[in-house]
Amino acid sequence: VQLQASGGGLVQAGGSLRLACSISGSTVGINAMGWYRQAPGKQRELVAAISSTGTNYTDSVKGRFTISKDNAKNTVFLQMNSLKPEDTAVYYCHAATFRDKAWYDLSWGQGTQLTVSS
Q1: Nearest-CA neighbor of 78 among 25, 31, 34, 24?
Q2: Average pLDDT over residues 61-79
Q3: Are 18 and 77 in contact (CB under 8 A)?
Q4: Is beta strand 112-117 parallel, antiparallel or unpaired with respect to 9-12?
């Protein structure tokens, strides 16, 4: 499975942006899709994820970000509102599979830069 992320850019604090992750290839085995981010000097963190059981978000984005999936278009979106300078990072989409009671990486997208100016 291949993932192509897009939609990053420069936005002012308080603004909005939507990221898109296009999924190509076989989607068999994908149990969850997620968005991670990595800011300079920091570890990559999970921002939001979506699976058959629902969605979950890291605390810092709850109420501001929304992850969704368009199955017909094989695309996962991350709608980001009320953006803050601390949201500045490279955002990566991610596909995971669950088997034998554990999660495994299936694929990573190439990353898209979000910069929020104050």
Answers
A1: 34
A2: 97
A3: yes
A4: parallel
For range 1-27, the mean pLDDT: 96
| CA proximity to 109, closest of 72, 77, 73, 65 | 77
Residues 6+ positions from 11 with CB-CB distance below 8 Å = 17, 83, 114, 115, 116, 117
Instruction: Measure the CA–CA gap between 35 and 57, rounded to whole angstroms.
Output: 10
Please compute the mean of the pLDDT values over residues 66-72 and round it to a whole number.
Answer: 96
Single out the residue of 7, 6, 17 nearest to residue 117, CA to CA. Answer: 17
Closest C-alpha among 29, 36, 34 to residue 54? 34
Identity of the residue numbered 107: S
**Token code pair at residue 15:** 């603004």
In this structure, what are the phi and psi dihedrals at residue 95, rounded to the nearest 5 degrees? -120, 135
What number of helices (H) and strands (E) belong to the chain? 0, 11
* pLDDT tens track for 17-53: 999 999 999 888 999 999 999 999 999 999 999 999 9
